[in-house]
Records
---
Amino acid sequence: MEMVLPFVIGSLYAMAIYMLLRRSLVKLLIGLGLLSHASNLLIFTASGLTRFKAPVIPMTAEQLQSPHADPLPQALILTAIVISFGVTAFALALAYRAYRSVNTDDLDQMKSTDA
Amino acid sequence: MLIVAVISGFGLAFLAPTICRFAKQKSGWWLAILPVFLTLYFLTLLPGLASGQIPALSYEWSKELGLTFAFRADGLSLAFALLVSGIGALVAIYASGYFGNKAPIGRFYLWLFFFMASMLGVVFSDNLILLFVFWELTSLSSFMLIGFEQEREEARAAAIQALLVTGSGGLVMLAGFVLLGQIGGTLELSALLLKGESVSTHPLYLAVLILILIGAFTKSAQVPFHFWLPNAMQAPTPVSTYLHAATMVKAGVYLLARLSLVLGGSSFWFWAVGGIGALTMILGGYLAFSQTDLKRYLAYSTISALGSLVMAIGIGSETALKAMVLFLLAHGLYKGTLFLVTGAIDHECKTRDVRELGGLWRSMPYNAAGSTLAALSMAGVPLFFGFVAKEYLYEAAYKVGAFWISLAIIGALLNVFIAFRVGIEPFWLPSQIEVKPSKHVHEAPWSMRIGPLILGGLSLLLGLFPQILGRSIVSSALTAALGRPVEVKLAAWHGVNDIFLLSLLTLGLGVGLFAVRQDLQRIAEKVSLRWGLDGLYKRSLDFLFTLAGFQTRTLQHGYLRYYLITIIVAVVAITAGGLWRWGGGTLPYLSWDIYFYELGIAVIIVLSAFMATLSRSRLGAVAALGVAGYGVASIYLLFGAPDLAMTQFLIESLTVVLFVLAFYHLPNFAQLTPKRERLRDVFIALITGGLMTIFVFVASGIQIHPTISPFFVENSLPLAHGRNIVNVILVDFRGLDTLGEITVLAIAGLGVFALLKLRLDLRTAKGKKSAEEIAKGGDQ
């Protein structure tokens, strides 16, 4: 799987960036979602993959048996998932509010609203 | 006590606005108490200097950087300090009469005393960096004072010009100071002065010298930086008197005199300092010819006088430095007087055009007296102080050679002309152009008489009895500047010798020039006398604005996607560069071990992401995004991260719901970008994606630092009593991180709530409406 996931990550990044570069605010938000998937997978893959062996100590044992998945990147990604949810929610509300206020979702037309 | 002398001025500056509120028009008299007191204090220090007692003190500031609050009051410092405090007192008194109750004098006095304290700081500093700080503070207060009448555009422009010229000169000088400090191994002035030998033989000597000279020349308005000084005459006259004639512009002269021991003596010094000084002296006098405004006359003659001071320092002999100290004091006295008188004339007659003024001695007898004394001193008439100073200047130049003495004579000649034009003509001769006086001209109030009378009187008194100064201040100033004990004997009369004959010749020729002044003026009007970097200054300022505008328009264009492109391209370039330098040659061994369902999930993720990108329908895109998220969650599940998978499934579901809710209110997808730009974006996206792929390959095989994961694995159960290590890390080992994360979520939630509930537009509309209704109700 180490040979495949980098391509998956690359494609996710490519599509996220393409969407981020759209003029439509709505598409930008989709891009944001793809970007967070790509970044999480990046951390996950870069730290090494181990099949099925979750870093949980069985009730019968005192120590975790090697090999096992690395718990640290998992903790980081878990935080990242939750934060990106917060960001997405806020961005959606902001987009909604912006659209209600200026009546367009074209970012080029929003650039002069403060004038 | 010395530190009190420096600091108290700042204290008074900040108290001044309050004092002015209570003392009103009498505030000048009250505020002058401190400078008078300071003058007396400085005078009491003089006898001690003769016996070698130099007051000095030093407080630590930053030892590692060699910075100290070090102050030292030797003869050279005191000569300048006496000018600063003495003229400061008279100007403070004068200003309250000058402004009356028409101007915000609280603000004026604030900056005036701020300047006085800074200038005292400059002359008493014994540390180069401290000196620099005070130096820039004087530039700052000069800026505030030139622009005092801030509603006038010319005043603002002149203020900015003075600040830019002297301020940037100061920065150049700072570089010179730092170099000098490194060569000499200390930033203490008094210690540096003993190291003249090691500095002048150092390979960087020339660099240090040029950098410091630029600082001194900009401040003291030497060619080619002289252009700011005439423009600075936009300042109220008390300011011009104090800063731009008597004291601040002499800071450069002070610095050169102070450093001549360590930097002087070389032939470069002689030609650069002496030559520029001589050039400035002559050019200043020459440029004055086409003027008719009294203040501009005085400004150009000040440039000329500064030139002669610098020239004397360049020559550097004992006689030359003696001439420098005497001329410094003489110029302060007579030029101060003439400026003050000009202000009084302006105040009473509402004009400063010399052609419109005449016969004022009847209506303004006190100012006429002060002005006449000062003008005679400036012209170098025997028995006046200016004469004594000029005699020594001639003597110094005479000893160097015929070239220099002829330059000195030309410079002095022009000043005789200006002295008569400014100091004599308005009072004793009829005006050229008859102007109907707008009101009956009468003498200025006492506050505006006392300054000219005292300064003009001193110009005569010190000319008759120069030894008052010779024994005390001139001796100790020379001792400080030359670094060896010097006894000075000054006499008003040297008998008839070559120098005296040259003086008489100068005076005669100058008066002759004055006699044909109207013809000169006609000639000068035809050949407009303008020379300087004023045009270059304007062009470079315009260029700066154009550049800034161009830069802002290019970089701050307001298009989100171009900002993003800039960031992305930069990141890609830097990362690619890094990977390139890393070598990228040795990809880690990667197994082809792969199960078919894993491959299936990977394909699903890519395809659904692709769908999310291409879909024309909003719901389709959101659904595809959700599928991609579930795919990612499945990967987590397969590779030993059940917690991640669980979270991702939950969050993904919630996100999809949120998207659908929000998109319900948002418009349909629109295709806004033309095809060419879309192709460009595809290109950027593909490059970035490709780079990230390579990046992951490389990153998977690298472990630079030992990982800390084993610590968590080993201690999870014994220390934290938890078997799910990911959970333990989140809530225990890195609990504070999680607290931060929760806080972020809470803030995001509050933000969402506020965005959804806030109805700014509606509320203001309602507010207006109800206000209108209330108004209507009131009408009924």
Note: Chain A is about 65% helix and 0% strand.
---
Amino acid sequence: MTLTRRWRITLRAVALGYLALLLLAPVGVIFYRTFEHGVGAVWDSITTPAAVSAFWLTVEVAAIAVPLNTIFGIVMAMALARGRFRGKWLLNAAIDLPFAISPIVIGLALVLVFGVNGWFGGALADAGIKVIFSVPGIVLATIFVSLPFVVREVTPVLREVGDEQEQVAATLGANGWQTFWRITLPAIRWGIAYGVVLSVARAIGEFGAVSVVSGKIAGETQTLTLLVENRYGNYDVSGAYAAATLLALIALATLLAMTLIKPRREENE
Amino acid sequence: MIAATNITKRFGDYVALDDVSLEVPDGSLTALLGPSGSGKSTLLRIIGGLESPDEGSVQINGEEATTISPQRRGIGFVFQHYAAFKHMTVHDNVAFGLKIRKQPKARVKERVDELLGIVGLAGYAARYPSQLSGGQRQRMALARALAVEPRVLLLDEPFGALDAKVRAELREWLRRLHEEVHVTTLLVTHDQEEAMSIADHIAVMDHGKIEQVGAPRDLYDQPANSFVMSFLGPVSKLGTKLVRPHDIALSQHAIEGAAQAMVSRVVHLGFEVRVDLMLAEGQAVEVQLTRHEADELELSSGDIVWLRTAGAAALRA
Amino acid sequence: MSTTALTRRATARRPAWRSSGALGLGIATLWLSIIVLLPLAAVVARGFDGGIDTFWHAITNRQAIAALRFTVLVSLLTALVNAVAGTLIAWVLVRDRFPGKRIVNALIDLPFALPTIVAGLTLLALYGDQGVVDIHIAFTQWAVLLAFLFVTLPFVVRAVQPVLIELDREMEQAAVSLGAGNWTVFRRIVLPNLVPAILSGAALAFARAVGEFGSVVLISGNIPLKTQVSSVYIFNQIESDSEISAAAVATVLLLVSVLVLIGIRGLGRWGARHERALAEDGR
């Protein structure tokens, strides 16, 4: 199919125009709005105690959720790519659930299990553990929403690499653990890296599920995304823009990381 | 010596190996020859411990090995597609098994250098597999398998992914290497020419069973059945007999008991001349002559000739 | 299906050199069950806590049903727009050449990387009452569509792109050599090969839109019976301690998600069969 020059340029213009109006213009405006009163005001706005605390809470939550999901993701991907067992299709389907479910439903689900009146609520309260309206709840919500990324990135890479290298390693005397560390892991490292980047972005950016379980206590259970909403709700629009810009910069860094990792991930294919 | 005894292996309903027994003599280079799906690779993988048999046992040098993991079987395994460790240099690939065995560094380097010399990759230690040709990768894979001084070497279609010229070179090279290293070797192939040119023993497999075992020449000259006969070389059917095309003699004079046929085509293939004939009862037969024989007969299409078997190998169809 | 049955089976079938994964699989499955499956079961259980009548009442309540209908309709529209725009963008990114293409390609993933609340705020900054341009669609139903289109942009593009890259150009050249014009080539050759990818991308976009919360919570205005979407409705029910009512509507959204997932799996199988058939033709 070879289009005439005019057609090609028309299609290009329509596609790029759509992207510009939908994506670039809004994101550009928020940068503009944020910095229209100067960098100093922005700096002050993102270094208030509430903002700093929100930043560190966000980092802390991601630092717990992402490693757990990475380990889970690698184990699950190995099972899905290499194992043969009954119920594999069911497990495979269940892993995609967090992608398809509303974050609000996820938040509600966690409240119903771990909340004061939830299934485990009594037992947790007796043990003196507060999950909902507290940091553990935010961590659980974050784990839930970012659960599938590493599995979904690593499984196809494992399939692509195949298991012959692992078999050779076994015939050369390597045990399962040695084979995993020396052969399997190096082969899938860029797939893992890609999944981790996606998980980090989702962990930092999660809003709906976290807003249900957090209780939104400033300085305690307020993450960066909750801070944005809180400031906007309190008519601190420029403060909301500043925090949003910080998050947008993290998103751009994510995109950059994705672009750098992608070609290396595809080397295996 | 490798001894596989009464091996049966099923994948679901499919019987890959049906009560198969095989002995590979010490120091031999034995080929498992058969069409795809004949079970030859499965048998090799069971001997290597990469699959476990449903029934039967494997012994290596007289020791029971059926339940021993591949790590401790003392085997070297080479795959059709090399299974190179892509993230390691050639040196690290070959050194892998030695490092697993925690050999001292100096010893590892010495051994790797020695092996790279043997397989003709002396200058390539620092390269990555992606920088090697297919033939070089496979030689690296062989060096890697030999590094751990295996009791037996198992090769699964080792030249199957290479082009014809490199394949012929590597065959010769493996033959010489085997004379040097003399490790008991079992090689899986579907290429009868490869098996004939390289192996001192051949086991022909079909449908999960071993049809015949023997020296290449014996199999060719005294095939146990029509499958072995036709798998090892071209076959012509003369009446109710299966004959090699070069074992049919032609005569321009009527001979008692010989079949009468008409020449339909003469094809000159250099040294060899192929003659297509049509028997009186309408059956097509192919005959191979040397150029010299063909010249003497001065054959051309439409000539009437008489056929009789001249060689030893003939089977009832 | 119990975990032990699952692991025992795995061990029995595997050869000795890779028997170690069973324990890991068991733990990973347990983890998935506690974090994901158990809480989702709790939603359904809580939704039916008051019996089927209460459940039915909760989801047919005037506001709830209005929110559900509005959400599904706008999500369908989102899927439709994405199917067209996403395919066009994918086509331009694969077949066209222009300076800055790599950057545009990377930017497609921005909605995945950008927190949804930030997405909502940026749309508000541009198209809101104090917006920079003179289009004031904030707090209207169009605003919800806009937010949905923003967050679901990558799905169809990323589903169609790889298929388009792999698509055999010789097939198109053969059609052209047989006298087909561009439109015919697109309709009869290119499009049929893209359909499974377009459908599964659009289905993912639909699922995402139905559950979307962060990007619409600011810009929709949450006007009941008008611009309120189901996720916001559920959120309000949670805030006002109407757990059963929240869980009932959540159960409906959950059902929609599961149905879409099943549909996508079916599509995947269809696509694979399609490809296999093509591969066999090629032989």
Note: Chain A has two domains: 1-36, 38-267.
